[in-house]
Amino acid sequence: MNQLYVFKRLLQYVSKYKSKLLLIAVLGLIGVVFEVAKPLPIKFVIDNVLSGHPLPHFLSNLFSDTSFIENKKNLLYASVGIMLFIALFSFVFSLVIFNLTVGMAQRLVFDLMIDFFAKLQRLSLSFYSKNKVGDLLQRMSGDVFVVYFLVAQIILPALTSLVCLGGMFYIMSRIDLLLAVVAFSVVPVLAIVLGFFAKPMNDTTTVQYKTQGSFSAFLQQSLSSMKIIQAFGRESFMHQKLKKHAEEFGNAFIVANRVSMTYNQMSVLITGIASATLVTLGALRGLNGTLSVGDLFIFLGYLTALFGPVNSLTTAIGAAIAIGARGKRVFDILDSEEVVKENPHAIDIKYPKGEIEFRNVTFGYGNALQLPVLKNISFKVLPGQVVALVGATGAGKTSIISLLSRFYDPWKGSILFDGVDIADIKLHSLRENVSLVLQEPFIFPMTIVENIAFGNPEASFEDIVEAAKGAQAHDFISKLPNGYETLISEQGSSLSGGEKQRIAIARAFLKKAPVLILDEPTSAVDSLTESKIFEALSHFSKGKTVFLISHRLSTIKHADQIITIKEGQVVERGTHQSLLDENKVYAGLYKYQHIT
Ligand code: M5T
Ligand code: MG
After folding, report:
1. CA nearest ligand 1 atom 12, residue
2. CB neighbours (10 Å) of residue 459?
3. Is residue 556 within 8 Å of residue 390, measured between CB atoms?
4. Which of 590, 571, 174 lies closest to 374 in space, CA to CA?
5. What is the CA(356)–ligand 2 centre distance, in A?
6. For residue 589, how far is its CA from the centre of ligand 1 (angstroms)?
7. How far is the CA of 233 from the centre of ligand 2 (A)?
């Protein structure tokens, strides 16, 4: 991805605000006219008021009564009046332009942020195992500002500076062509300097933003694992690690700024040398009488004014380079491949029944060259059946249900929902029909009601309470200070493990989906509560297809089908009794649990 591509993509965003940008540009150009006209009244004061030269014809012709302009004081007041007028209008224009630009640029940033977030929501879990949350945050909250800089530091300043320089060159060349050429000779010299600096500036800013991303990622990880850090007394270890990240970021920041500072100062030096040359030449011309004092004044005035646009042009180019590096960080994510893609012809599940079939499914988390986690898995579950997945830790149970929700796609084989390959079903429609309790329950930093109703926002309060009762959560919720309206702190840290699990179960109970997946839903609750939850489960799951993963085999005894997974393969299938009769893996596990 190169610089030009980043600009093309950014400009697509800007093009939405074409008319506004045009308005700002037009206002900016009118502002330039005032800027260029600023030294002119002083020329009149020097040449026509103080030195007594007559006004140029085009001006004196404007007055029918020449007695007015022959009075030097009148001429002085008129010149000063024009000066004040220019100052006032420059002020008003700058304010209006600034407000319009900031407003538009802020909306642009917002657009880019929204697209970034929408993309993040579409990316699959394999993306999140490769990218760190902190770095993504940095990209989304910091790097998206490139589009702001593009407008506020590049497009508009470059445009007005170029026109300003053009206007100045026109007036200067009309006074003295040679001097004008000398003054503008800085431009090609600056271009050559820029040629030398472009690559180092791009490289160093790339490193700067990359290290900044790693720094944020580390910070985010540390903040969310503070409990473990403190429990293991690893504060100083983490401190050292943070220091390392901070140093890397700090050094990259220094190097990048050193390079861009050198570039900026080189341009200042070059313009400085040009002005010295110009002052010498101009003064010599003044001495031998070929240049009036007023014209010399304009020249010198423009010379200082020249710095403004030249500097904003060089800054704009420097900013363009930094934007390339930062914008790449945004578009790298926006353009990243959606591994779990939605088929353009995907369909909605209209009348879901909940029949699930795995056909020769092979899957792994890495690429196909690595070892698969699931090997040739096949089974079929009829609507309304309860199927239990059992097997040792790491056997692949969670992986099977992750495939069913299409968090990942299988390498080989297919998964069918009511006879339709889930790859041909709209993602939203598929997930709407699957309710899930994850092995690690996730609780949002919202109220309990919002947490339970997350999958069914239209649910009535009575339904919410009923689901909570079924999940054996109602009693503890009622004892909380604000009951169902209690706000849960980040990551559910104000709840016990079992309480979190019960809220997650209530959430799944409330979601009216024909397929219910429970991945060790009660691993953190006591046996009595567990048996109550399972009693309620039979009520809430009536007519639903249920996938149940549990290490406590007593909870799955009544399943219609038990599938034993060993090292990613289905090794046996049957009911509790038939598997006990077979006396193989399941029977071994069951006997072990009931003897010990
Ligand atoms: C099966 C590996 C894991 C294990 C195997 C989630 C995940 C798992 N794995 C990865 O390489 N990357 C991942 O992102 O896959 O894992 P599982 O399906 O989670 O096993 P389980 O649910 O049967 O185990 P448990 O402990 O929950 O009972 O080799 O390393
Ligand atoms: Mg698991």
Report:
1. 365
2. 18
3. yes
4. 571
5. 19
6. 19
7. 29
Ligand 1 atom closest to 389 (CA): 23
- DSSP readout, 276-333? HHHHHHHHHHHHTTSS-HHHHHHHHHHHHHHHHHHHHHHHHHHHHHHHHHHHHHHHHH
Residue 178 is predicted with a pLDDT of 84
Answer positive or negative: Cα dihedral of 210, 216, 217, 222. positive
Q: In Å, how far are 53, 257, 401 from 303, measured between CA atoms?
A: 24, 28, 72
Phi-psi region of 413 (alpha: psi -120 to 50; beta: other; left: phi over 0): left
We find that the CATH architecture of domain 354-433+515-596 is 3-Layer(aba) Sandwich (3.40)
CA dist 283 to 131, 185, 258, 275, 291, Å? Answer: 63, 19, 37, 12, 8
**Confidence (pLDDT) at 128:** 85
Helix (H) or strand (E) holding 358: strand 356-363
User: Minimum-distance ligand to the CA of 390?
Assistant: 1
Task: Kindly report, residue by residue over 52-86, the tens digit of the pLDDT.
Answer: 777 777 777 777 677 776 777 888 888 889 899 98
Closest ligand 1 atom to 125 CA: 14
Ligand 1 probe mutation, 365, 371, 375, 377, most atoms within 8 A of CB:
365
Nearest-atom number in ligand 1 for the CA of 520 is 27
Closest C-alpha to ligand 1, atom 28: 393
Structure tokens at 170: 């026109």
Q: Which of 398, 563, 571 to mutate to test the pocket of ligand 1 (most atoms within 8 A of CB)?
A: 398
Protein residue with least CA distance to atom 6, ligand 1: 399
Cα 305 to Cα 183, 184, 259, distances in angstroms: 12, 13, 26
Q: Domain 3-334: which CATH class?
A: mainly alpha
- Residues (pLDDT < 50) of the chain are none
How many other CB atoms sit within 10 Å of the CB of residue 387?
21
Q: How far apart are CA 4 and CA 11, in angstroms?
A: 10
Q: Which residues have any ligand 1 atom within 6 Å of their CB?
A: 129, 365, 373, 391, 393-399, 439
User: Residue 533 and residue 294: Cα distance in Å, rounded?
Assistant: 94
User: Which pTM value belongs to this model?
Assistant: 0.77
Q: Delimit the CATH 3.40.50.300 region(s) of the chain.
A: 354-433+515-596, 444-512
pLDDT at 378: 95
Please list, in sequence order, all residues whose beta carbon lies within 8 angstroms of the beta carbon of residue 415, skipping any fewer than 6 positions away.
356, 357, 358, 359, 361, 403, 404, 406, 421, 422
**Which residue has the least CA distance to atom 10 on ligand 1?**
365
Which segments of the chain belong to CATH 1.20.1560.10?
3-334
Q: What is the pLDDT of residue 1?
A: 60
pLDDT at 195: 81
Closest CA to 255 of 311, 212, 309: 212
444-512: CATH number: 3.40.50.300
Structural element, H or E, at residue 389? strand 386-390
